[in-house]
Amino acid sequence: MDTQKLRQIITDAISKRPPSKLKYYHICWWEKRIQCLSLCHTEKIHDIFFFAGEDTFKNDLSSYQYKLIENRIQDFCKGKKITLGPTSDKKWTYGDMYMRQQKLQITEFDSRRLTTLVLNARTDGCSTEEKLSQLQRLLEKAEIVAPESIPANVVTMNSKLRLKDYKSGDDIVISLVFPGDATVDKNFEDMKVSVLSPIGLSVFGREVGEIVSEEIRVQELLFQPEATGRFDL
After folding, report:
1. How far is CA 157 from the centre of its chain?
2. For residue 40, what pLDDT is reported?
3. How far, CA to CA in Å, does 144 sit from each of 38, 111, 149, 168?
4. Quick check: 70 and 3 in contact, CB under 8 A?
5. What integer best gives the mean pLDDT of the chain?
6. Which of 16, 154, 177, 185 has the greatest count of CB atoms below 10 A from its CB?
7. Is the same domain home to 78 and 110?
């Protein structure tokens, strides 16, 4: 393959990389083309040619780094008998990522209970208006589905999940509960987190694999009521 063409493919992939709050990327073979993606974009094994922090890509690669990547891609294409084409024309923005993350699915049962929670809490004055408004906006934007139709990888009320803190390296296990059931385990082994807490509002309705704050990712869904046929939790 022509070196100039390959260099352009690599440059295009870097310029079109989706935003990542983790600020680490790799150049890889994904969806049948060369892409520059966040390190955590998938847990599937795939071919990776180079990885580095955001600053490395932002400040442009050195000649040595380009040559290293080009050689690795050339060897890969030769071994797989792949002919490279242009990268996707799509260039991601932070707005794109935000909108993707806002398209939530929640169950009818959770929607009814949480709507009632917001109304009662405002009447009782037992929660801050900011948190209640956040939850209300979330409910208004979400797609409401029947409990039996909710995907098994979506965080619903009373789900138990493992979060990955990339800053500390810790795994945190939490259960998402209603405010009256919330408790805190200082060892981060099994916290019952209120849906009105910052972390509760961040994870509710999210899918496994999503980044929900600057360093936190939904790593695994350990229990979802609907997936086990429990539509009353």
Report:
1. 18
2. 81
3. 30, 7, 10, 35
4. yes
5. 84
6. 154
7. no
Q: Are residues 151 and 218 in the same domain?
A: yes
Radius of gyration, alpha carbons of the chain? 21
State the residue range of the domain holding 78: 3-92
CA geometry: angle at 135 spanning 134 and 140, to 5°? 100
pLDDT of residue 184: 65
Query: In which region does residue 181 sit, left (phi positive, over 0), alpha (psi from -120 to 50) or beta (all else)?
Result: alpha
Q: Tens of pLDDT along 127-140?
A: 577 888 889 988 98
214: left (phi over 0), alpha (psi -120 to 50) or beta: alpha
Q: Give domain status of residue 233, yes or no.
A: no
Both 163 and 64 in a single domain? Answer: no
Within a domain: residue 139?
yes
Number of structural domains in the chain: 2
pLDDT digits (tens, 9 = 90+) for 100-153: 445 688 999 999 999 999 998 887 766 577 888 889 988 988 999 999 999 999
CA 79 to chain centre: 33
Q: What is the rounded CA–CA span in Å between residue 199 and residue 22?
A: 17
The b/e string for 113-149 (b: 16+ C-beta within 10 A; e otherwise) is ebeebbeebeeeeebeeebbeebbebbeebeebebee
Same domain, 17 and 54: yes
Say which residue the tokens 């079109």 belong to: 16
